Amino acid sequence: MKSSDLKLKIDSSPAWIAAVLNDFDHFLKDHADAERKASGMAMSFVAKYPDRREIIPELIHTGIEELEHFRLVYKIMEERGLQLNHSIEKDIYIDKLLKTMHSGREERFRDRLIIASIVENRGFERFKMVSDHIEDKKLADFYRMIYLSEAKHGHVFVDMALNYFPAPEVFERWEVLASLEADILSDLAIRPTLH
Questions:
Q1: Low-confidence ranges of the chain (pLDDT < 70)
Q2: The domain that contains 168 carries what CATH number?
Q3: Burial class, 56, CB count within 10 angstroms (exposed 0-12 / middle 13-18 / buried 19+)
């Protein structure tokens, strides 16, 4: 098995993309917040695990790439006369996922990488839905670029975990956490937000 073989357990509902298209400005503002958080998450790995030298270059690259996505989303917001949210609201989806992590240092490190992979894979799926359904060609092309990047990030975080943990352990834990993610997603209210 390879990281590219891993699949989410459920698809996002058609009601989600309908909500996004009905309030796209709200979605854009949330997307900008999500990119800021994703950049911060990559850099938090660098801060918390400076001894994991094998993955630090990739983490830095990912953090910069997510920040560049934020810059690009903000440019679209500016064109539409939108401003950033005054504060980034708590992401219930992420919060619930993080509560599924084991508590030991090594297990927590493994689970954080796997959860990052799952979140990026969900981002890939949802950004692809936006690209496939939005009528504005410029926005469709933009979200195609975004979802291709998210797909790559989904594999990168699993590959990082494989530097430190046996493949059967990583893939088995990915399956467990992906099942929990499906339950979490199913329980969330449908909103014009990324999660």
A1: 3
A2: 1.20.1260.10
A3: middle
Q: How many domains does the chain have?
A: 1
Backbone phi, psi, residue 26, to 5°: -65, -40
Is there a domain that residue 114 lies in?
yes
Considering the domain boundaries, does residue 14 fall inside one?
no
Do the domain assignments include residue 13?
no
Both tokens assigned to 81 = 């006369």
Which residues, in sequence order, are CB contacts of 164 under 8 Å at separation 6+? 52, 106, 109, 110
**Amino acid identity at 98:** L
Chain segment 42-51, per-residue pLDDT in tens = 999 999 999 9
Q: Is residue 151 part of a domain?
A: yes
d(CA 42, CA 49): 11
CA atoms in the 13 A half-sphere facing the CB of 175:
8
CA distances from 188 to 16, 90, 92, 115, 135 (A): 11, 13, 8, 17, 27
Which domain does 91 fall in, by range? 19-187
Give me the residue label for tokens 């839905």: 129
Per-residue pLDDT, 6: 87
The pLDDT value recorded for residue 74 is 97
Question: Percent of the chain scored above 90 by pLDDT?
Answer: 89
User: 0.85 exceeded by the pTM?
Assistant: yes
> Residues 184, 96: contact at Cβ < 8 Å?
yes
